Amino acid sequence: MGLGSYCFKKSLWVFHFGGASCNNCDIEILDCLTPRYDIERFGMQLVGTIRHADVLLVSGSINRKCRDRLLELYNQAPKPLLVVAFGACGCTGGIFAEGNTFAGPVDKIIPVDAYIPGCPPKPEAILAGIVKLLNK
Amino acid sequence: MSTRTVIPIGPYHPLQEEPELFKLYCEGEIVRDIEWETGYNHRGIEKINESKTFDQVFFVVERICGICSTSHPFAYANAMEELARVEVTDRAKYIRTIIAELERIHSHLLWVGLAGHFLGYNTVFMWAWKYRELVLDVFEKITGNRNNYAMFRIGGVRRDIPNAHISDIKKMLEAVKPKVDLLTGAVMDDPVIHARTKGVGILTKEDIIDYAAVGPTARASGIAIDVRRDDPYAAYPLVDWKVITAEGCDVFAKAEVRLLEMYESMSIIDQCLEKMSKTQEGDIFTPVKDIPPGSGFGRAEAPRGEVFHFVKSDGSNSPVRHKVRAPSYVNIATFKKSCVGQTVADATIILAAVDPCYCCTERMAFAYDFFSGKQTMNGLDLIRISHQKTNELKMKM
Amino acid sequence: MIKELFYFLIFPGMIFSVVVGGVLSWSDRKITARVQFRKGPPFLQPFYDLGKLFYKETILPRHGARLTFLAAPVFALFSATLANVFILLPSVFPGSGFSGDLIVVFYLLTIPSLTYLLGALASGNPLGALGASREMKLIISYELAFILALTAIVIKSGMSLSISDIIAAQQEGGVFAGSLSGVLLFVVILFVTQAKLALVPFDMSEAETEIAHGVFIEYSGSAYALIKMARYVMLFALPALMVTLLLGGFGMEGISILWSVLKLVLIILLITLIRNTNPRLRIDQAMKFFFLWMNLLAVAAIVLSLINI
């Protein structure tokens, strides 16, 4: 493993893409930053622009309107980029998969590196998912 | 128009965890006009509900919005009970009220934290969310989950709170109280917070009435509107509490209302736990055999204001029409009044101050072709899409 | 020539300043985390960040001035490093430096902010442009207070424009921060430092939740790594300037190394605490703060220095 990819794993900056979600996943993601879980221990932080991102975290089902935006954000991101599908809706579409605006789960649109299932995933589950991602 | 710069807030912007696009038309830093574009979060929930049974709808409406995941089932249950003419037992009423008020505490704490985060005051964010965890622990004890509690059913609740747990829950809530005191003190007395929030985003009484705003947004302008008092449901008429209002009309008043409401919620929970311990354990729902044809509506006071659900039944086991109106839908419209004339820096905190919940609010957006001005999608198209989807699902089966 | 290159590139120049700046940045993040009841990042975190950014792809804006966009971080890093060399050399080698290096340092410390501004404007992003306009207003407001404060220091040192003379004057007559005017100057320069480093309450040019990192919004990969490095160096250079001008400079032998480190850490601690106990100001409030209060304090300090209080 080269020095670059070693540093990459030690300092993942996360950009959060909230698709058509119910907000619970988004709240649990923010919860990971807070004192009880403190994700900064692993060098992770949430960033506000896709240009700084190393991880694209996609939560919520994807509808027809945000499908193109997701694709565009994926293309705008500097590579290498990891994509994480987050929550039941991100992984499969969940309860909203039968809605008339649903446009396919995340992995039909962009390649996904890790899945964190749950509705919403507990912060513990998120940390477990991250550890798996790091050891990949 | 051409000299104005468009500053986009969203759709994927760190200010909002949810996708929503506000276009601020600015001259320099001053916002001259604001436009709101929706549709990024549309999931077609009302349509999904028409294919679910009445009991399954609870799990869908719970996922309209994660933070108000009690308010929507609450309003839906009120609607269904009106439709089916069911009386709920006292114990179920108390349990419903406890869950709803716990949700109010956690939601207001969440807002205080986020408001601090938007102001760049990350310490308040971290502290508020640290103490919010204590409330989530109570939730986990009562319902088994941190969010999406699945407690409601037609005629009552799904799980009982055993009398043996009451003293534990009381103890856990007592631990929250000093933390809320600390936070209230930190926010109310900070001079820099005053400088940033006082006199910013003024909504006068007339504006509130014009835009029909609800919830803490209205109460911060001195209008005592609260469904819990105006249209009593569940255990609210049985306990003692008051509607908090403030006269400031600005962002600071909204924070004040939310902070003080937490104390009211705690006292409501205390009284409910006390009264609940005197009722029969396990008597938590009235069996409902079938739903008659007809319609019913239910209202509930979410942390953000009034939630309204309308259900129409034709005697089958699923709703023919289900209509949801969430509080943010009316509150967001007030931005047109409160943001215009302010700077971009203030506009962001004003946007956050009504605690907008975009996933509740989401409506179908009609798409217009930018160049020809032609509408590219209309109601008939929606029905066509829906048929397509049904066919796809049939093919899979 | 070799000696100058060594000064610039290794010690006390680029490598040394980036390393020390990185450590200071870590301590800033760690103190923040402790204030917020968190554990905080590991010790090497700033260097992991740098390594990762160099490893990533750099994206250029399609509709922007690419050369300016790329040159801006380079100039930021070089001028910050050069400023740091001029600040540290008189402490490391007493008597070095030249008359007037204080003015050079003043100009060099302004250049990073200017280059961020130029880079943001070159990127063509509307949020970047908004951040740039805020940065511009902020520069205009704090520079006057900064130059007034430096004037007061020049008066206190007996009208000398050389940093090594200022250090010598403090070694003879006690540190400047010990007098009343010195305390006022300390406050002024502390807030100017806060604004130059773009930390809360003066971080409006990159306010994450308002304009999504503002001036840095389009930077990625190596270009952003250079900006990070420049910011690490600035995080070292500005407290170092405060130590040099007001707290008697850095001693380089024996126990005084410990004292030097303590002085530096004290200032970082103050900066971090200010940043964690305040929300962000609006740009007009920040301008008012500097134009009115800080200038007033600085002028008072000048008057007090003239009558030797």
Commentary on this structure:
The complex is a heterotrimer of chains A (136), B (397) and C (309). Chain A has helices spanning 3-10, 24-31, 64-76, 87-92, 123-134; strands spanning 13-18, 45-46, 55-59, 82-86, 114-116. Chain A has one domain: Rossmann fold, CATH 3.40.50. In chain A, strands 2-1-3-4-5 form a five-stranded parallel β-sheet. Chain A contains five helices and five strands, in the order αβαββαβαβα. With 397 residues, chain B is mainly α. Chain B has two domains: 45-335, Cytochrome-c3 Hydrogenase, chain B (Orthogonal Bundle), CATH 1.10.645.10; 368-397. In chain B, the strands form three sheets. A three-stranded antiparallel β-sheet of chain B has the order 1-2-3, covered by helices on one side. A three-stranded antiparallel β-sheet of chain B has the order 6-7-8. In chain B, strand 4 and strand 5 (156-157) form a beta hairpin. In chain B, helix 4 (90-118) packs antiparallel against helix 14 (344-353) and helix 5 runs antiparallel to helix 6. The longest helix of chain B has 29 residues, at 90-118. Chain C is mostly helical and 309 residues long. Chain C is globular, with a radius of gyration of 19 Å. The chains are: A alpha/beta (136), B mainly alpha (397), C mainly alpha (309). The A-B interface holds A 16-31, 33-36, 46-48, 50, 60-61, 63, 65-66, 69, 73, 94-96, 98-102, 119-120, 122 and B 11-14, 17-19, 39-45, 47-48, 51, 59-60, 63-67, 69, 110, 125-126, 129-130, 133, 146-148, 357, 359, 362, 364-365, 382, 385-386, 388-389, 393.
How many E-type strands of chain C? Answer: 0
Number of helical stretches of at least 4 residues of chain C: 12
What is the CATH class name of chain A?
A: Alpha Beta
Low-confidence stretches of chain A are none
**Beginning-to-end CA distance, first to last residue of chain A:** 12 Å
| Global morphology of chain A | globular
Shape of chain C: globular
**Helix- and strand-based class of chain C?**
mainly alpha
Main pleated-sheet profile of chain C: none
Which fold does the CATH topology of chain A refer to?
Answer: Rossmann fold
Structural category of chain A is: alpha/beta
| Fraction of residues in H or I helices of chain A | 25-40%
- Average pLDDT confidence of chain A is 85
